[in-house]
Each structure stands twice: as C-alpha cells, then as structure tokens.
Specification:
This is S-adenosyl-L-methionine-dependent methyltransferase. By secondary structure, the protein is of the alpha/beta class. It is 42% helix and 9% strand. It folds into 3 domains: 76 residues; 89 residues, Winged helix-like DNA-binding domain superfamily/Winged helix DNA-binding domain (Arc Repressor Mutant, subunit A), CATH 1.10.10.10; 290 residues, Vaccinia Virus protein VP39 (Rossmann fold, 3-Layer(aba) Sandwich), CATH 3.40.50.150. It starts with a helix and ends in a 12-residue tail after the last strand. 40% of the residues are buried. The protein binds S-adenosylmethionine.
C-alpha cells in the first residue's frame, strides 16, 4: 500500500494531468475554458468528448478524495450530515425566483432587497440562504448582500420573468409542452418531494413492518403521501396533476445528466434501420428521448407508450417540440400498461429508458417479459439505465468498465454520484433498485446501455 504522502501526491498529479488534458482539448477547439463566472447555461460540445469526460471524472474524483483525506474528519462528517440544508437553500432560491430576478442584472448583481421582492421572504433571510449557496459556488456574492448569477445558478432559471412567476406562483408546475430549460426540471422535484422522501427513508427501511418488503406500496414515499399506493398509482390520481407535471418535467430535466443526444449513439444503430421501421418508446414519459431519435432520423416511425394521463402530456410535448411528426402521423401515442401484452408486435426497436429501475425485481422482470414477447426475431430491445458498480476494485458484474486510476475509488467516487443518488431515490420512491445488472429474460437482441456519468456505452460481455 502506498504511503499517505504518495497518495496525496498521486491525487495532485491526477488533478494536474486532468487539467492539462482538458486545457488541450478546449484550446484545440478554440473554446474558452470553463469558468465559474460564466452565465452561459450550455456546455460546449468539447465537454462531452470521451477524453474530456474521462479527465473531468478523474479531476472531480481526485479533488473530492484529496479534500476528504486532508480536511479535518470532524468537519467532513458534519458537512455530510448537514447536506440537506444545501438542498433547502436551493429550494428557497427556486421559490423566490432568485435566478430569474438576477438574469438582467449581469455581473454587477442585485442587492438582496431587490431579489426578495418577488416573494414574501424577508431580505435578511434570503441573503443567508443565498450566501450559503454562494459558498457552495451556486450564485456569487459580488459585494456584501449583493448577488449575481453564475455557472451553477443559471441552471435553476426557468427563462421566465420573475414578476410573472410571482403573480402565477406556478413555477413548480410549468406545462410539459412548454418545457422549461432542460436543466431546470429536476430541481423542484429534488428539493421538495424527494427531500421529504429522503427524510422518511431511514424509518421505512428500519421499521420491522416494512424492512423486508419489496412492495411499491411500502416505499418511503407512502409515508409522505399518506396513501398506501405505489408512486405511479398515486401520481395518476386526477388530484395529483400538479405532482404529475413536476414528475414529468423532472424526467425531461434528467436529460441534463446525460451526454447530449446520448440516445443517438451510433452503436444503437438507428441509421441502419430500414425506412418506416417502428421504434416503440415503452414508458416514454412525454417521449423526450424518442423525440430526439425521431428528429435525427426522419425515416423512423415512433410509438410513444405510457399511462393515459402522461400520454396526454406527451401529445402536447410533441406538438410543441416536433409538430411535423404529429401532423404527418410519424409519431403515434398509445396508452399502455406495461404489465399487459404490448399491442405493437414485431417493432424494430423497443426502448425503455430509466424505467426498469422504478420497480422491484419481480415487476421489472414482468415488464421485460412483455417486451420480449412482443419482439420478433429481428427486434431489438434497448434498456437504458445506470449500472451500479461497487466502490472497490473487485467487480462482481459482467460489465466491462475500466476502473478509475489508483488511488481513486474504482467507480470514480463523487464523479459517479448521480448513479448512487438515483439508486437511493429509487429505494425511497419505489422500493426498487437502480441497477440493470440482473439478466433480462430471453429476447432476441437485447442491448443494455449504460448512462453512467456519460462515460461509457457498453453491453455486458455475456
Ligand atoms: C422514470 S419515468 C421514465 C420516463 C422516460 N422513459 C424517460 O426516460 O424520461 C417512468 C415512466 O413509467 C411510466 N409508467 C409507470 N407505470 C407504468 C405502467 N404500468 N405502464 C406504462 N407506463 C408506466 C410513468 O408514467 C413514467 O412516465
């Protein structure tokens, strides 16, 4: 085992090598290097080049590992134990429309008095929340009590006017058709609904009545909703249309965790499918991903399948975002319960993204079986989700992931946080497991596509 000094130096070297690689790639594309002060919400294409993604993952993992190694452990554990306060402050920023209020102020920012006027909050309390966020690199405090947007805070800007948001008080429920900037979608869901579910998770998995349960109606979410219903049965109730919109927008928003257009990866083989081939998006949500496929490959037909209430939102989403496909009939919408036989047999592709992880294994296998039964000899089933890798070097799965360089955790630690957070969200919300490591039932061609940290797209070796 390397000495502590060597470890520290190895981490520093990894940081330095990663910065070199990132700098070279950005310079080669004449792109300015990332800056915390930038308020451009988009990332340049170079950020998604495989070498840059890998260097960014190594950099992130090395920086956090170095910090956790050196900073006093009492401080570190206090910070981990109180992480929910950061989420609470982010929720305050969202509900006070702070990012929108600051949009036109530019670098000089606004005094907190002028930010606070879009909600009933007291300026002093808002200043404390924004300062907490600014100390975590979300917003900038450019002078005492004067805040400006930055690289992170623009991600919670809906693009709407703060004055309008104040009068509507509808920020959390933008319609799916007029989807907010992709990046916004997940934050309200995470800082409110998921926040409450997380608070109920420990008591749920320690309660002898629910500890051994794998049933959706025993998940922690039921202690938040007060109804013994699985999350989707609860969401589909007419009186939950507000949360259904929040949820569907969150699904649009999780796109931000992917490499853009990840779904178009050439290994999936969209362009080689014959003209008129049918692609079924099973449990599509509003069909964010099949829409990207339909837009890039006009020779394909798409069938969007989901529960009835979501299908109605999907129609609006497509009418707004790809009207040509709707008017030409290239996209069809079908209400469908994926525990029942699929009405579309022999489609070229059945794809199912971030959905299998919503269900305990028994139900997950039923969903996969229905797809396999609808498929014919030439169909292909594409499942997209996170692959959960152990943090140690010894790997138990058949997935061929290259481990992170020593002395990093093999799974890149904090750089892979999205996958592990998603797993815990699945536990609390669905009593499910965010993993596609179990073998699916027999079907002709099954691809399991990993969306881990955007680093890899691979299929298991078996
Ligand atoms: C986590 S979302 C994923 C949505 C979409 N695939 C995506 O990647 O954005 C899971 C979807 O499963 C749908 N769903 C839940 N139960 C279903 C059922 N029994 N039959 C069909 N769809 C269902 C939900 O309405 C929701 O849209």
């Amino acid at each position: 085992m390397a000495s502590p000094t060597t470890h520290l130096r190895q981490l520093v070297n990894l940081i330095s090598e990663s910065v070199d690689k990132i700098e070279q790639a950005y310079n080669a594309r004449s792109e300015p290097l990332p800056s915390l002060e930038s308020t451009d919400p988009r990332l340049p294409e170079v950020a998604f080049e495989p070498d840059v993604l890998k260097a960014t993952a190594a950099l992130t993992a090395a920086c956090t590992q170095l910090q956790h190694t050196v900073q006093p452990q009492t401080t570190q554990i206090f910070h981990s134990a109180s992480a929910h306060h950061l989420s609470a402050c982010l929720n305050v920023a969202i509900r006070t429309h702070a990012a929108e209020a600051l949009r036109s102020a530019g670098d000089k920012g606004l005094h907190v008095r002028d930010i606070a006027k879009f909600s009933p909050i007291q300026p002093e309390k808002l200043a404390r929340c924004l300062r907490m966020l600014a100390s975590h690199y979300i917003f900038r405090e450019v002078a005492p009590d004067v805040f400006a947007n930055n690289r992170l805070s623009v991600q919670i800007d809906t693009g709407k006017d703060a004055e309008i948001l104040r009068s509507q008080d509808l920020k959390a429920v933008p319609s799916c058709a007029h989807a907010p900037p992709l990046t916004f979608g997940f934050s309200p869901c995470s800082t409110e609904f998921q926040f409450n579910i997380a608070a109920k998770l420990p008591e749920t998995i320690l309660d002898p009545h629910t500890a051994d349960s794998t049933s959706v109606d025993n998940a922690a979410v039921t202690r938040v909703t007060g109804q013994k219903l699985g999350m989707f049965d609860w969401l589909m109730q007419p009186e939950q249309s507000k949360y259904r919109s929040i949820f569907n927008n969150a699904m649009v928003g999780v796109e931000m965790y992917n490499v853009p257009e990840f779904i178009l990866h050439e290994d999936i083989g969209w362009k080689n499918l014959p003209a008129g081939s049918v692609v079924v998006d099973v449990a599509a949500g509003v069909g964010t991903h099949s829409l990207i496929v339909a837009r890039a490959h006009p020779h394909l037909r798409v069938i969007v399948e989901d529960l009835p209430a979501t299908i109605e939102q999907a129609k609006d989403y497509w009418k707004t975002n790809l009207p040509e496909a709707v008017s030409s009939g290239r996209v069809e919408f079908q209400s469908y319960d994926f525990f029942q036989p699929n009405a579309v047999n022999g489609a070229a592709v059945y794809f199912c993204r971030q959905t299998i992880h919503n269900w305990p294994d028994k139900e997950a296998v039923q969903i996969l079986k229905q797809m396999a039964e609808a498929a014919d000899e030439s169909s292909r089933i594409v499942i997209i989700g996170h692959v959960m890798l152990p943090a140690c070097r010894e790997q138990s799965s058949s997935w061929s992931f290259e481990p992170a360089p020593e002395p990093l955790l093999a799974n890149y630690g904090m750089a892979s946080r999205t996958a592990y957070v998603t797993d815990i969200i699945m536990m609390g919300t669905f009593n499910a497991v965010s993993s596609i490591s179990y073998p699916p039932p027999r079907a002709n061609h099954i691809s399991l596509v990993s969306s881990n940290n955007g680093r890899a797209l691979s299929t298991p070796s078996s």
